[in-house]
Amino acid sequence: MREDLHRPAMITDADQWRSRDLAVLWHPCTQMREHPGTLPLVPIERGEGAWLIGRDGRRYLDAVSSWWTNLFGHAEPRIAAAIAAQAGQLEQVILAGFSHQPAVELAERLLAIAPRETGRDPLAKVFYADNGSAGVEVALKMAFHWFHNRGEHRRRKFVALENGYHGETLGALAVGDVPLYRRVYAPLLAEALFAPSPDSFLAVEGESPADCARRAADALGELLERHAGEVCALILEPRVQCAGGMRMHDPAYLAHARALCDAHGVLMIADEIATGFGRTGSLFACQQAGIQPDLLCLSKGLTGGFLPLAAVLATQSIYDGFLDDSRERAFLHSHSYTGNPLACAAALASLDIFETDDVLAHNIETAGHMARLAAPFAELPHVADVRQAGMIVAFELTRDGDRRTPFEASRRVGLRAYRSALDQGVVLRPLGDIVYWMPPYCVTPQQLELLADATRTAILEAAA
Ligand SMILES: *Cc1c(COP(=O)(O)O)cnc(C)c1O
């Protein structure tokens, strides 16, 4: 079989790939020194449904949807076919001065399904970017520039939530509050105002999630009051602060925040890059509170997890604020691959699947299985909290299983859980000491059972 016979028996094909990789690649979000001794490096050859298949033939259940991007499974044939067909026709064209069918159709369809509130100026225009962080930059610049065009030059601050995350570029980092990603770059970042998170995990004794949301909203109201006339927008992740540890809040917060933005003349930016497209149970998380933002950021699942693409949806009145005879007043932002036809074609195929497969109804069933499998974890000694929003389940691990005593960071509990799960053929990627499930929607009840077994073992081993 192949030339393997001529190599020393111990060096596998996967080993060869690892050394070729480490000779030339610098991986994202990784202390490269930990590869491959502390942190395994797994060469993947292909994907199939919820499975990733390694070059050594080992199969891994992708319980994190490949960084929250994948919706319907890997190499989904309908999306793959749509991309192939588009590639044979038009792969890319400049979107300034030119137009193409996938970009127009996708915009029409996104606007038709976007959150809408009766009586509010609806989301009416789509601006494309090519990744989530770039989408956030677009929304922030639009909000600032819109007020600037109105002559409201004092409105130049952004309000964001504590423990929020909006991406890694400098503008997005400035409104993020996850210290691990932010701290080093703090001297470079524009100043933002941070309001307390409505995170239900932070509820004090006797407080319901709705009470906790109310308390956080009161603090937001005070902040907006103190900075009256200085704030252009509030940016938040509706329902789940994902990178901040899958922390969840009561939808009531979104309704309070919407009302406060209106009262203070501040735009609301909903970052649904991770929560959009059915992840939290509804198509968009905003819909659980019946609210509509002024700017909506989408990416990750937008293309079903096939290609990078972001869309920023804006209201008609924001759009109108840029119309003028001067170029200065126009939104001159662009990316080379803005509205790439292949990515738009993938997104259209993904939206088709939502319709033909009745995905949201199917997800309700799957989320029910996840809930039943997750419930017993609350009894494990180190599990302080089990929480769920639709297709996301999180387990918060603490030293004593109470809600306030974290493990010492040096114990690397998350890393140990990661390695244990990987050994069992499951990809979990804990956020600190928070283990979570965010599987592709095609995950089967049997696969979920495997996931639950592996997670239980991983938690017990990591926390021991
Ligand atoms: C992932 C994420 C981003 C950044 O998207 P990238 O494509 O990784 O740049 C922004 N906001 C939220 C809420 C995210 O989860």
What does this molecule look like?
By secondary structure, the chain is of the alpha/beta class. It has a domain at 83-357: Aspartate Aminotransferase, domain 2. Helices cover 36% and strands 16% of the residues. It contains 14 helices and 16 strands. The chain has helices at 13-24, 65-68, 77-87, 101-113, 132-149, 170-174, 179-182, 209-226, 252-264, 316-320, 341-356, 359-374, 413-423, 445-463, and strands spanning 44-48, 51-54, 59-62, 123-129, 157-161, 193-195, 231-236, 240-241, 247-248, 267-271, 295-298, 310-315, 383-389, 392-397, 426-427, 434-437. The chain has a 7-stranded mixed beta sheet with strand order 4-12-11-10-7-5-6, sandwiched between helices. A hairpin with a 4-residue loop joins strand 2 and strand 3. Helix 3 (77-87) packs antiparallel against helix 11. The longest helix is centred in the C-terminal third of the chain and has 19 residues, at 445-463. The chain is globular. The mean pLDDT is 96. Pyridoxal-5'-phosphate is lined by residues 131-133, 136, 165-167, 237, 242-243, 271, 273-274, 299-300.
